[in-house]
Amino acid sequence: MTYNTLCKQLALTYDEGEAKAIARLVYEVRYGLSLTDICLGRDADIDDSDLKQVAERLKNHEPVQYVLGKTQFCGHTFHTDRRALIPRPETEELCQWMLSTPFCSLLDIGTGSGCIAITMALAQPKAQITAWDISPDALSLASENAQNLNAHVDFILRDALQNHEDDNQRYDIIVSNPPYICQNEAEAMEKNVLDYEPHTALFVPDSDPLRFYRAIAHYALTALLPQGYLYFEINPLYADDLCTMLHNAGFSEVTPRSDAFGKIRFIRCRR
């Protein structure tokens, strides 16, 4: 199967531009072929049986990152599979924002694949980095990524919604990209997300869209060191409500920030 044949097959499931982008990624990541190699006809040498299996998975809407088993995040290669959400470009922006803040200790709540905690650990090797998740499967994936990237992170199985007032740990930064999509938004979501990515990491009840933010902010009031920072990735639909909640909770310098697409995607505040 050639590159052009794969593009035609994927165009039955995706729009033409996305089909070509996915096909190029497959040839580049899985088979090590550049666009120049494809133009020279080297795609004809690919194992046809393997490529057919890849094509079938993609035509069933499986995310290309899961099919390939890896993705790039902040210049590092992370293993990806259905144990955790796929790291996304918006979260790279959150990491870049955090790196403007000096820190010696950081807690990542809801670490998933470990992309935030590991990226920060690699950027600040002397810092103490801790990461929580409620999912043992996600923590196993995060641990594998940390080991592969030689990052030192303390991974802990913990539920962000539980009371942690007996926790004596203190941090310069607490960061979280928690579940924030309401159930009523699911109908508008892509099939490759709904059918493959873990719903526990995606959704919150329609009746309480801020449930994770409220719990994490409450914990951060005692767990942050004086003048420490709390960073969130957020649902833009609830940016105003979240800013109000953080102000009312006693945080200062509540600062929303837009992503590359102009949507308010992040909030930073200070204890």
What does the model show?
The chain has 271 residues and is of the alpha/beta class. It has two domains: 58 residues, no CATH class; 188 residues, Vaccinia Virus protein VP39 (Rossmann fold, 3-Layer(aba) Sandwich), CATH 3.40.50.150. Helix content is 39%, strand content 21%. It has eleven helices and eleven strands. The protein has a seven-stranded mixed beta sheet with strand order 5-4-3-6-9-11-10, sandwiched between helices. Helix 8 links the parallel strand 4 and strand 5. Helix 1 packs across helix 2 and helix 10 packs parallel to helix 11. The radius of gyration is 20 Å and the shape is elongated. The protein starts with a helix and ends with a strand. 36% of the residues are buried. The model has no long low-confidence stretch (mean pLDDT 93).
CATH superfamily of the largest domain: Vaccinia Virus protein VP39
Largest sheet: 7 strands, mixed
Strand content: 15-25%
Portion of residues within helices:
25-40%
Walk me through the topology.
Blueprint lengths: L2 H8 L5 H14 L5 H5 L8 H12 L4 H5 L1 E4 L2 E4 L9 H10 L6 E5 L5 H9 L4 E6 L2 H14 L4 E4 L13 E6 L4 E2 L8 H4 L8 E2 L6 H13 E10 L5 H11 L2 E7 L5 E7 L1
Parallel strand pairs: 3-4, 3-6, 4-5, 6-9, 7-8
Antiparallel strand pairs: 1-2, 9-11, 10-11
